[in-house]
Amino acid sequence: ETSNAVHKISFADESLPIPLLLLGVLLAAAAAKSTDERNARIVCCFSNWAVFRPGVGSCGIGDIPANLCSHIQVLIIDPELDVKQNGFRNFTQLRKKHPQLKLQIAAGPKVVKNTDRDGAYADKDRFLYFVQELRTAFERKGAGWEITMAVPVAKFRLQEGYHVPELCELLDSVHAVTYDLRGNWAGFADVHSPLYACKHDQCAYEKLHVRDGLLLWKEMICPANKLVVGVPDLYFKPL
Questions:
Q1: What is the C-alpha to C-alpha distance for residues 40 and 30, in angstroms, rounded to an integer?
Q2: Is 0.85 topped by the overall pTM?
Q3: Three-state secondary structure call for residue 237
Q4: Where is each GH18 domain found (predicted)?
């Protein structure tokens, strides 16, 4: 079982306790491990297409610094890499060296259907029923399996696609997608994952940043100790 110990990140005049979600293989996890809160939830998300990066950028399961993570989540399932080339077997082997490590596999829209093109659930009632049935099945199995979910931080997405209080009660942790909040679709250059609002933010962008995104989930009755903030470690090829 994971501990409820969390890292505290101060947002202006409020302190919101939130564990850290690490996207990719983050050396920043070392800093978290140097604190007294060594049992915090630190989720390292691994994309198996990283093996196709050229040169030193190539990264496989064996390169994951598992000692820095409490959880490791594989984002995409690839039949060739994960089945034929023993990717799943190599993934589960990490538990031999790190027995306390929890391993997870992400299921996207192709598995959980009934999503719109932006990933929000078109029928939030049916999605809630799905999570309820999944929780019942996991508890019946009695293997200590966890259910987590990556979620948006835009208010209209939450209102249209999620029964927030009910889902947060069912889930072990809620991974806030607090990255890629700005992009080429915005029509202007900006920080893609701002912590706070900027003076030039207008309309929906005034609340679309890490601080208000997490506070929104908290205000919609999701326990703060279940919220996991996404920390981006991304590289985009210059145009």
A1: 12
A2: no
A3: coil
A4: 1-239
